[in-house]
Specification:
This protein is α/β, with parallel strands linked by helices. The chain has eleven helices and eleven strands. The radius of gyration is 21 Å and the shape is elongated.
Length: 287
């Protein structure tokens, strides 16, 4: 427990002393900077220049509660209620997945390939809205629609769109039981569906398994492509001929996904590796 006056330096030292067993040094420093900024309301530059800056003693209990949560491997994004993604800040809750770097790479590809056009884009299973908002903000002529099955998730996504001045149509809809047909056709469909199989759970980090929504992560071993197949069925009606489909994928299902796309008569099928050289994105054109 902290007994001295609260300063940026003393809180940093306290967190480091108590959390060094939970995190490797590089990650620990990043987590501490996020927490210090959250508590003090100051940015990283200010904190580095002013380590003696006093923090209200009111935050004493908050610091200890945060430290306990971090020891229990709660993701720091759920503690602060915020995550950064592709240069924007997003609210996150326990109802939403925390946006990943790999998904930033998916977004970057979609932006680069569509920035000079004014496409009608559909984001299926939007979560925090990270994909839809990033596309709406960076592709100025885009008309973006996003769906999710959960009212709680859609409220988070809509708030994130408002905070980032993104004009997006949000629709409550289930990929496995869609009702979006009445909204017309799209030039681009993007989807980051659940794709981790139940048997792969054992390799997952504790902070993911204990805190993030499993329904947004996992699929049954017996039908790992259930969401991909559902999207392709839906695309028979809502993706324009010649339109582009982007998926985030499980690196272990690359061959199966390519076969599925071929079976649905998609052309120009490409698999794109992420920054870690893992197959992470599929891109294809509707034939």
């Amino acid at each position: 427990m902290i007994r001295d006056k609260l300063t940026i330096s003393s809180v940093r030292r306290y967190l480091r002393d108590n959390l060094s067993a939970q995190y490797p040094p590089g990650e620990l420093n990043a987590v501490i900077n996020i927490i210090l900024s959250f508590i003090s309301g100051k940015d990283r530059t200010f904190m580095l220049i002013n380590p003696g800056h006093e923090i209200s003693s009111y935050n004493w209990f908050k610091v200890n509660k945060i430290c306990a949560d971090l020891k229990n491997m709660m993701p720091v994004q759920y503690i602060t209620g915020e995550s950064e993604f592709y240069g924007i800040k997003l609210q996150v809750t326990r109802d939403t997945l925390i946006p990943r770097q790999e998904t930033e790479e998916l977004v970057d590809l979609v932006i680069k390939e569509n920035i000079k056009s004014s496409p009608r884009i559909l984001d299926l299973g939007t979560g925090t809205g990270c994909i839809a908002i990033s596309l709406a903000v960076n592709i100025k002529g885009a008309n973006v629609t996003a769906t999710d099955y959960s009212n709680k998730t859609l409220r988070v996504a809509a708030l994130n769109a408002l905070k980032n001045n993104a004009d997006i149509l949000y629709i409550k809809d289930d990929i496995l039981n869609p009702g979006i047909l009445k909204y017309g056709q799209y030039d681009v469909v993007v989807c980051n569906p659940p794709y981790i199989t139940e048997s792969e759970k054992s390799g997952m980090a504790e902070n993911v398994l204990n805190y993030e929504p499993h329904k947004a992560l996992f699929v049954p071993d017996g039908d790992p492509l259930i969401f991909y197949r559902a999207v392709l069925e839906l695309n028979n009606k809502i993706l324009k001929k010649g339109g582009t489909l982007y998926f985030e994928i499980n690196e272990n299902k690359t061959v199966d996904i390519k076969k599925l796309l071929v079976n649905y008569q998609y052309a120009n099928i490409e698999i794109v590796n992420d920054i870690n050289a893992k197959a992470r994105i599929s891109k294809s054109t509707k034939g």
